[in-house]
């Protein structure tokens, strides 16, 4: 997908609603769109920060300018890809806030997300479980466990306004990359169903525009993933069993630089189908189960 025309609001604190401001980090890429969007929660003297973003001095300075003179009490990370959590440590050093959010997770920087591997510096003071809450004056954030994109992924619900901060789990500009071994398609689909059952008013993803019809989008995403599964089964039925050959047939028009990520999503689907006994694997070759 093409990026929108510049200028982008990089470094500016945008007021989205009374309790929510957004600051865009200067890290655009094919995987991050115009960059990581850090959210500042609260309107009083105590604030929370969601997805502090990359450890970039300009971004951290922009966050501090937006925060002062208030005090940050919680730094929340949806997951530990390096475009989301590395600024947590320097922001904690500047503000004294606790880091509270997803569990730490570090894997080797392999596969299509080699540009954004897991953050080895992430050290939470408090790991939140599903349903656990953080509170400040006038705001309450509830952790919503949404594994799939990564096994440690959390969303955060702002109870006072009906907003859900979806990290990389749901984005309007692109589908999320589900990349094994940590990315899990069965878990991702279950997490989508979980969000579809909720009644959140608006989604604020970590990349791209806000989503004003969230249940409609999630319903479409579930349908899209099921369509991908049907495409895979059709190709397997025709004797096409190698992922590298499936990618250009399933993702026509996709930038070749993104083919490895598409291949990982196909692999995630195949692993889920294998777990259900629908397909079998022989090395790099996949086939329908007899």
Automatic annotation (TrEMBL):
SUPFAM superfamilies documented for this protein: Metallo-hydrolase/oxidoreductase
All residue ranges annotated as the Metallo-beta-lactamase domain in the record: 35-207
Cited Pfam families: Lactamase_B (PF00753), WHD_BLACT (PF17778)
GO molecular function: hydrolase activity
Keywords in alphabetical order: Hydrolase
Domain of life: Bacteria
Entries under CDD domains matching the protein: metallo-hydrolase-like_MBL-fold
PANTHER family (alphabetical): ENDORIBONUCLEASE LACTB2
Protein name, per record: MBL fold metallo-hydrolase
Source organism: Novosphingobium flavum
């Amino acid at each position: 997908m093409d990026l929108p025309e510049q200028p982008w609001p990089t470094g500016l604190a945008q007021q989205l609603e009374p309790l929510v401001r957004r600051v865009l980090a200067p890290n655009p890429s094919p995987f991050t769109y115009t960059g990581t969007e850090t959210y500042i929660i609260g309107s009083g003297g105590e604030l929370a920060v969601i997805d502090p973003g990359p450890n970039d001095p300009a971004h951290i300075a922009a966050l501090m300018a937006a925060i002062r003179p208030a005090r940050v009490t919680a730094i929340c990370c949806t997951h530990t890809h390096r475009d989301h959590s590395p600024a947590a440590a320097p922001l904690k050093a500047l503000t004294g806030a606790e880091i509270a959010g997803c569990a730490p997770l570090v894997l080797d920087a392999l596969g299509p997300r080699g540009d954004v591997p897991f953050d080895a510096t992430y050290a939470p003071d408090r790991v939140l479980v599903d349903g656990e809450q953080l509170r400040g004056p006038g705001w309450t954030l509830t952790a919503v466990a949404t594994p799939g994109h990564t096994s440690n992924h959390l969303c955060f619900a702002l109870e006072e306004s009906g907003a859900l901060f979806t990290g990389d789990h749901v984005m309007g500009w692109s589908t999320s990359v589900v990349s094994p071994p940590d990315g899990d398609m069965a878990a991702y689909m279950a997490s989508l169903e979980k969000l579809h059952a909720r009644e959140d008013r608006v989604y604020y993803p970590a990349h791209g525009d806000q989503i004003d019809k969230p249940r409609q989008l999630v319903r479409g995403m579930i349908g899209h993933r099921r369509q991908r599964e049907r495409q895979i089964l059709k190709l397997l039925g025709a004797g096409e069993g190698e992922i590298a050959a499936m990618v250009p047939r399933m993702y026509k028009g996709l930038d070749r630089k993104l083919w490895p990520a598409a291949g990982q999503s196909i692999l995630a689907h195949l692993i889920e189908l294998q777990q259900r006994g629908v397909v079998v694997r022989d090395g790099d070759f996949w086939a329908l189960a007899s």
